[in-house]
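Summarise what follows for lecture notes:
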Amino acid sequence: MTTTKTVLIVDDSRVSRMMARQYIAVLHADWIVEEAGTGEESLVKARHTTPDLILMDVNMPGMGGIAAAEQLRQEFPAVPISLLTANVQTATRERASAMGIGFVEKPITEARIAQLLATLEAV
């Protein structure tokens, strides 16, 4: 029996959030999907929902994804966080690795979302 999980999608692109939500719904219709459009909003949402997984864009207005992920990592050390970004620079990958967070390139595809969700499916 699987338990319902909560996934927080953080991306300033409404289209990206909708695509990720759709792919998650196809794979796990019973899971809860929360959305945030900024790094600041992600902190508020995470504190209210305590997500099981956070998918984070890097380049956003205001607080970027790296800064938000750093704060979320401190507040929720056990929650998996994965950058889901078009920013594929080596420095970004190295920063993610140093912070202990995942890194997945955009574009968002069902296969990439399935790969990210697989870590929760085993739990």
Summary: The longest strand covers residues 6-10. The CA atoms of residues 56 and 83 lie 5 Å apart.
